[in-house]
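By convention, the token line describes the chain's fold. To illustrate:
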Amino acid sequence: MERTKGFGFSLLKGLLVGLSVCLALILVFALVLKFADLGDFWVKTINQIIKLCAVVAACFVSVNGSKGYIKGCVTGLSVVVCTYLLFGLVSGSLSFGWGTALELVYGIIVGTLAGILAANVKKNPQ
């Protein structure tokens, strides 16, 4: 009798992929910032795009089968919380404000949409 791995294991894999994507893109962006003088608006915008990519990558790894919207929602929220904690610990300050609350909502929305997409793309491989 073979035991299948549940969503918890898939979530962990997706979370690791999401964090890896986020860290890699942040390192590339830091290198770009070393040579280019971008304004505060562009830095914040590109950071949000990087988090979007991390959530989408995590959802495509962790979501399979049915209920993609729920799994995507949980994955998106998990990635945003983990990146917040990781970068907060690195910078030495964890402060919660409206910006952080908006990022959590943003992660839930993007995760839900990416979960729906991932579940339907994986359902019909061609």
Notes: DSSP finds four helices and no strands in the chain. The CA atoms of residues 19 and 83 lie 7 Å apart.
